[in-house]
Every structure is written in structure tokens, then in C-alpha cells.
Design a protein that fits this description.
Elements (H helix, E strand, L loop, with lengths): L20 E4 L7 E6 L13 H17 L14 H4 L31 H4 L2 H19 L5 H12 L5 E2 L2 E6 L3 H14 L3 E6 L2 E6 L1 H6 L5 H13 L5 E3 L6 H15 L3 E8 L4 E8 L19 E9 L3 H12 L6 E3 L8 E9 L3 H6 L1 H5 L3 E9 L10 E13 L6 H18 L1 E2 L15 H9 L3 H8 L8 H12 L2 H7 L5 H13 L3 H9 L3 H27 L8 E3 L17 E3 L2 H5 L8 E5 L10 H12 L8 E2 L4 E2 L3 E4 L1 E2 L2 E9 L5 H12 L17 E4 L2 E4 L16 E10 L4 H9 L4
Parallel strand pairs: 2-12
Antiparallel strand pairs: 1-14, 2-14, 3-4, 4-6, 5-6, 7-9, 8-9, 10-12, 10-13, 11-12, 14-26, 15-22, 16-17, 16-18, 18-21, 19-20, 23-26, 24-25
Length: 751
């Protein structure tokens, strides 16, 4: 066993004593293919009878999409009226008496990408619209300067092809009614003072006279919030203007609202005895009372659609944010069993709420333009849940194989590889969390952000989150600008659209400020799964260090005070997580009789519902927490609605169904990639190479010719200087286990 003195995120502490070898992974994303295994033990790419017609439907949708040429990315309106279901505003219950002035600013809970005009209209049109609104506002404040004259000057100076006349701006033609609905909604949300008008398929914008009149009666901020409230069209929702002690003025507001919106709303004045003010409350009328339902049908049935997602070189959350924006739903409407690697080709199951299978198929080709491919689209009765999977299957290529020292023939490398792989097949590997858990190559890793959150240092956590990397990539430029200026709005304009988490945080920081309260609101703007990721990352780092300490101090046997699975004699221990009732503390007698093996030992993940080992490892946990100032931590972050009960993680993990093959040549692994690509495209399970992996049965290929090693004598073929061997590996891992950590045990170095 070897161990570095300074413990990194993944300590160098191993189970087996073989020599290992050097090599590189992820030279191409297709060198690292991950396929999810569902709870029934089936790979998610396995076709079912219900998938066949769905695949043909997707194919039929593609030609029309391709024939359209380059189009803007549009967030389509859901068939059940997206304005009512997917982009609601937070409103008060009409049954409770409103408090004057309480909701002078209505908070949107919708995905802000639903209203992102740069995504819906394109950057060029969005900039023209912003210039138009700026000139319109300037003209309103300076009546002597005509808008038409300024627009004409602007049009001639920038060569715009948009038609501008009579203080109007054309946004272009949108043949699809869902596209038009999204444009109308997004423009009204961002610019409530504009009126959108459709002429056949063309959409034009101009100043809204109703807004102009209302802003003369109330503040401009109230007028904007009221227009957004009207546009939600949510029956029984309520909006309350600020307190107004002038009865004459309130009467004027009542008359205007009744005259202009009388069919949609009803208004009433309420008095607040404590604040001694009176305010106008507006309620959207019901369109008609729904008929009574039976008790068992009292809740409207939700629509859930399952599908298999294939992505390449994208984060799972990045792909979800993009799909949510296009479909016009919240990122939280997508559920999944686990997050997959970014730099890889990955296949996983997902379920989206509120979207029908037909609607999802219609957008399949649009998704493909962003490298997101859907298959096996079907209706299901419920969402997915995190951890609801058996594991993952991996098809990997390790390239540029070289021995650590002193071996210069292919047969000697064959022996090194064979010994290493066979050791891991039998003994397994230390079940560390992989480096991607903490953010590979980042200036500030996720566990440091998690530590700040556990200490409830919200401002520090935000600044750590926005720590830029070295270089001038757009994301780093935006982060650096925010840290230097504290200007969230400007940083948001610089942040790439694909960075969903950063954009959600910046929107909240712009709205609520960058102080402690604003930073808390910024963290709350993220879905729960994103928020809890950071404290979990800190817990994962502590677990990694605890595992290395346990092996270094207590060795490779189950010792007194260790925590183990309660089931005795169990051989097929899964490397997932278990709950408290299944945990047992090893006694002195059980240690002497070797009742439990090292494979049954578990270590706790930090939390408020776990017990710690009753040996020196338990004391180590307490010392480790004290070093970070968490000696009295309850693992609850109440302001962020986070609770970490903790769990248990097996010390060791073992790969299943492991096969391997050594190939010689620059094109090594291409046949496997082609085979995987064809099988995945057709929905078939990737096939394991049928290679004999017993001693003396290791296959290598050179120049397209397969050469079988027989284990007798030594090969005299030296390594070609420019043509190093590659290793193909295929295996399954239980959920929450990392292939990169398995490779570290095989290679005895970071791949």
C-alpha cells in the first residue's frame, strides 16, 4: 500500500500490490462511453416494443426540421397553456385578506430561460429590440425628439433590414404558433411597456398605451408588475398595489382597470388597520367553475414522459437547462437517477413533467443540433428519483500504454496489464469518490464551496463559486467581472447561455443584491439538487480522507469498532448506500474470529443521523471536522432548506463483468467505438468483447492483424516509438462508483 503525505481529493492508497503502468484516457469523448443500468439490471439503451414506433415518429419529424435551415432556438408553448402551468408567478391565496403593498413586486418562479430574448429571438434581433426600447423611453422623456427620426437615423447607420415605421419594430416572421406565443410572452415579460401585435405570421412591437396611462396613475414599477400579473392569466391570483390614502386617486385607478381589464379582473380596496393605509387589490376572474370530481379523481393527473438521453461532452445539468428552455418548463421538471461525466458519451434515463411524448418527439431534431439525442420516448406514471439505478456500464479506451519502469517488450506489458486487471477483478478497489466530484482542474473545488455553506457563510460561498479559472474564456471573464465590480447584471450579460447555474445565481444577485440576504436568495434560486451538491462534495472529500486513514492505520481486515453490513456472510455487496438499521459495530470476538471481511466494512458520510466507528477512525472524524470549524455542526443549513442526514458507503467496490483487450496501432479502439455507435444508434446494448481474459489469453492487435499471446516465452517485438498499445476495458460498476478510480487501482497512477 502506498499513500502520499499530503492527501489530495483522491488519495493514492491502494488495495493490490501489482506494479501498474502509465496511460491516458479521454483523448476523445468516445474513448469513454457510459451507459446507465436501471434498477432491473438492464442497460437503458435496450429497446422495448413500445420504442419502435416512437423512433419512426422522430425520424419523420427530422426532414422538416432540417429543411428549415438555420432557425432561432424557440421555447415552445406547452399544449396545456404554458402561461398558466409552466411560467407561473407567485401569488397569494385569494381566501386570505391581502396586505397592502406586500406584493408590489411579484416574484417569478419560472425558469428565466423561458423569457431569455437572446435565446428566443437571437442576439442580433434582441439588440435591435433593446435599442428600440431605449429610444422609445428617451422619446417619452423628451417629447420634442421624435422617435421616428431617431429610428430612421439608427436604421441608416447600422444597415438594419428590420422595418421600422410609426414607432414600431418588426421582430420577424414566426410561422409556428408556439413560437409566436413564446415571443409574445417573453417580450411582455421583459418589456411590459411594449405591445406585441401579430399580422399573419409577423410580430411587431410598439408602445402600449394602456401601460402609459397606468404608469401615470401608479409608479412605473407597479405598472410593470401589474402587466406581468395580467399576462400570467392564472385564475384567482391576486395583485395588490401599494397603499394609497387618496380616495379620488383610488377611484381613478378602479375606473381604468374596470374599463380596460373588466372582463379579466375584479378590483376592491382593503384597509390595513395597523399601517392605516388603504390599497387596491386585483383578482383575476375564474373562466368557469370546474365540475366536481369524485374523491379519487380530486387531483389532476400529471403528465410524465420518460426518455433515454444521449449527450457528448456536456454536463447533465447543462443539457437539462437547454431542454427546459426549449420546452418552456423548469429545469426542476426533469428528474434523473444520477449525474453522468461531462467529457464522455453518456446514456441515461430521464423523465420530464408536463410534456407529452408527442411534444418531446417534435423537438427531438432541434435538440440534436446541440448534441442532445433522445430515444425510447414513452409515457410513464411517475418521475425518476436520484439513486434509482443499479449502476453503470463502461466502455473505455486507455491509450499510450507504457510500463512504469524497465519493460520494453509487448509481452512484458501484456503481463503487467493482465496482472493488474485480474487483481482488481478479484480484490476490487478503494471506493473513493472520483475527482469529477470536486471539479477537475478548477481553481476552487466544490468541496470548499460546500464547507462555506455548512458554516452558513453565504457571501463567502458565492465568491468561491464565482472564482474564475486562469485564461480569458467567456465564463472566466464573466466571473472575474462579477468579483471585481459586484455588478451581477453586467456579469450576467457576459456569462455564456450554457452556464445555467451561474446565470440563475447572477439573476438572483442582480435582483436581491450581493449582501448576505441576497447571496442566500441566490443559492435558493438553484434547484435543491444543485444546492445540496456542494455540501455533499465536502462530505465526499472527508470520506476519501477517512478511507485512506482507515486502511493506513488499521490494515486490510475488519477490526473491532468498524462499521459493517449487518448481513453476515454476504458476498455480493453492492457499493451503494444503506441506512442506519443495517449497520453493525464489530466486536473484539468477531475480529478474532474474522466474522466480517474488509469488503463488508463501511464508513459514514457526514450527517446528523449516522454513527461513527467506535475505534480510532471515529476519533479521526471528530478531529477532521474540528480542523474545519465544524465540531458543533448539525448538518442542517436552514436558510437554504438543506438537511444532511448522512449515509454509509462501502470501503471497497468490485467491478462486474470485466473484460479487456490489448491492441496495437493508432486505430486501436476504433472498431469498438464503431460497434458501440451502431448498437447505441439502433438502441441495442453495447456488446462486451468476447475475448478470453484468462492467463495467457490476452489479445493484442497489430496492423489490423490479431495476435494471441500464449504465455510461453517472451515476445521480442519492441515498442514502436510512435505506435504505442491501447487497452480496451468493459465493465459494470454499482451506482455511485467511479470508473476513473477503478482505473487508478489498475494503473497505480492517475490515468
Amino acid at each position: 500500500m502506498t499513500m502520499k503525505e499530503e492527501v489530495p481529493s483522491v488519495p493514492e492508497c491502494y488495495i493490490s500490490a501489482h506494479e501498474g503502468f502509465y496511460g491516458t484516457i479521454k483523448n476523445s469523448t468516445r474513448d469513454f462511453v457510459v451507459t446507465e443500468i436501471d434498477i432491473h439490471g438492464q442497460m437503458v439503451t435496450k429497446p422495448s416494443l413500445s420504442d419502435v414506433p416512437q423512433s419512426s415518429n422522430i425520424t419523420e419529424a427530422c426532414p422538416s426540421a432540417k429543411s428549415e435551415g438555420k432557425t432561432n432556438i424557440i421555447s415552445p408553448k406547452h399544449q396545456h397553456n404554458l402561461e398558466e402551468e409552466n411560467c407561473p408567478l407567485v401569488v397569494k391565496d385569494v381566501d386570505s385578506e391581502p396586505v397592502p403593498g406586500q406584493n408590489g413586486g411579484i416574484t417569478s418562479t419560472a425558469s428565466q430561460d423561458c423569457f431569455d430574448l437572446s435565446m428566443i429571438l437571437g442576439q442580433a434581433v434582441c439588440e435591435e429590440l433593446e435599442q428600440f426600447t431605449a429610444l422609445l423611453r428617451e422619446a417619452s422623456s423628451s417629447p420634442n425628439d421624435g422617435v421616428e427620426k431617431k429610428l430612421a437615423n439608427q436604421e441608416s447607420s447600422n444597415g438594419s433590414e428590420k422595418k421600422m415605421a410609426n414607432q414600431e419594430l418588426s421582430l420577424g416572421s414566426f410561422p409556428d404558433k408556439h413560437q409566436r406565443a413564446n415571443v409574445h410572452r417573453a417580450v411582455r415579460h421583459n418589456f411590459p411597456f411594449l405591445l406585441t401585435v401579430t399580422n399573419q405570421s409577423e410580430i411587431r412591437v410598439k408602445e402600449d398605451p394602456d401601460f402609459k396611462f397606468l404608469s401615470g396613475l401608479v409608479t412605473e414599477e407597479e405598472a410593470e408588475d401589474f402587466i406581468r400579473f395580467i399576462d400570467t392569466k392564472m385564475p384567482n391570483s391576486v395583485y395588490t398595489f401599494r397603499g394609497d390614502d387618496s380616495k379620488e386617486h383610488r377611484t381613478a385607478v378602479h375606473h381604468f382597470l374596470s374599463r380596460r381589464f373588466g372582463k379579466l379582473v375584479e378590483t376592491k380596496s382593503f384597509s390595513d388597520q395597523q399601517q392605516k393605509t388603504t390599497a387596491i387589490t386585483v383578482r383575476l376572474r375564474e373562466k368557469g367553475k370546474p365540475r366536481k370530481r369524485m374523491a379519487d379523481n380530486s387531483k389532476e393527473e400529471e403528465v410524465y414522459t420518460a426518455f433515454t438521453l444521449r449527450k457528448e461532452n456536456q454536463e447533465t445539468l447543462e443539457a437539462i437547462s437547454y431542454m427546459a428552455a426549449v420546452l418552456g418548463v423548469l429545469p426542476s421538471d426533469f428528474t434523473y437517477a444520477g449525474i453522468k461525466d461531462k467529457r464522455a458519451v453518456t446514456y441515461q434515463s430521464m423523465v420530464v413533467k408536463k410534456i407529452s411524448p408527442q411534444r418531446l418527439r417534435e423537438k427531438a431534431c432541434e435538440f440534436e443540433r446541440r448534441g442532445v439525442v433522445l430515444s425510447s420516448v414513452r409515457s410513464v406514471p411517475e418521475p425518476l428519483h436520484l439513486g434509482r439505478l443499479q449502476g453503470n456500464h463502461f466502455d473505455l479506451v486507455v491509450r499510450d500504454l507504457r510500463p512504469h519502469q524497465g519493460h520494453d517488450t509487448l509481452m512484458e506489458l501484456d503481463s503487467l496489464v493482465q496482472e493488474a486487471v485480474e487483481n482488481v477483478k478479484v480484490k476490487g478497489f478503494v471506493n473513493y469518490y472520483g475527482p469529477q466530484r470536486f471539479g477537475t482542474g478548477q481553481s476552487v473545488q466544490s468541496d470548499r464551496v460546500g464547507l462555506a455553506l455548512l458554516k452558513k457563510e453565504m457571501v463567502a460561498a458565492v465568491r468561491l463559486f464565482f472564482t474564475p479559472e486562469k485564461g480569458d474564456d467567456p465564463q472566466s471573464v464573466a466571473k472575474r467581472h462579477f468579483l471585481q465590480t459586484d455588478n451581477a447584471k453586467e456579469a450576467l450579460s457576459l456569462m455564456p447561455m450554457s452556464k445555467a447555474r451561474e446565470r440563475m445565481m447572477l439573476r438572483a444577485l442582480h435582483r436581491y443584491g450581493t449582501g448576505p440576504e441576497g447571496c442566500t436568495r441566490a443559492w435558493l434560486s438553484l434547484p435543491h439538487g444543485m444546492r445540496v451538491f456542494y455540501p455533499h462534495a465536502y462530505s465526499s472529500r472527508v470520506w476519501n480522507e477517512a478511507a485512506a486513514h482507515r486502511l493506513a492505520t488499521l490494515g486490510h481486515r475488519a477490526r473491532q469498532g468498524d462499521l459493517v453490513w449487518k448481513q453476515r456472510g454476504e458476498e455480493g455487496i453492492e457499493a451503494g448506500e444503506t441506512s442506519l438499521p443495517q449497520i453493525h459495530v464489530v466486536t473484539t470476538a468477531e475480529e478474532e474470529e474474522e466474522v466480517y471481511s474488509l469488503g463488508q466494512v463501511v464508513l459514514p458520510m457526514l450527517g446528523n443521523s449516522v454513527k461513527y466507528p467506535e475505534n480510532p477512525v471515529g476519533g479521526w472524524y471528530q478531529e477532521r471536522l474540528a480542523r474545519d470549524g465544524l465540531q458543533s455542526c448539525r448538518f442542517r443549513v436552514t436558510p437554504l432548506k438543506l438537511n444532511l442526514p448522512g449515509c454509509y458507503r462501502p470501503l471497497l467496490a468490485i467491478p462486474h463483468n470485466l473484460t479487456y483487450r490489448l491492441e496495437q496501432g493508432r486505430r486501436a479502439g476504433e472498431r469498438q467505438q464503431e460497434r458501440n455507435g451502431k448498437s447505441q444508434a439502433s438502441g441495442a446494448i453495447p456488446q462486451h468483447p468476447g475475448t478470453d481474459t484468462r492467463s495467457g489469453g490476452l489479445e493484442r492487435q497489430r496492423g489490423g492483424e490479431s495476435v494471441q499471446g500464449n504465455g510461453e516465452g517472451e515476445s521480442t517485438v519492441p515498442y514502436p516509438d510512435t505506435d504505442t498499445p491501447s487497452l480496451m476495458l468493459n465493465f459494470d460498476l454499482d451506482s455511485s462508483c467511479y470508473a476513473t478510480v477503478c482505473l487508478r487501482e489498475v494503473m497505480k497512477c492517475d490515468p
